[in-house]
Amino acid sequence: MASETNLYYRFKVYNEFIDWSWFALEEAMIVSKQVADMLTGLRVVIAFGYPIIGASQGADALPLAIWLLFWSWTTDALDGPLARRSSRKYQTWIGDKDLEVDMTVSVGLLIYMLQSGFAAPFYGTVYLLALCLMFWRVGVPRSMGMLVQAPIYFRFIWVAMSNTPDPGYWLLVFIVGIIVVTWPRFPEQVIPDFIDGFKET
Question: What is the DSSP string of 92-112?
Answer without folding.
Answer: -HHHHTHHHHHHHHHHHHHHH
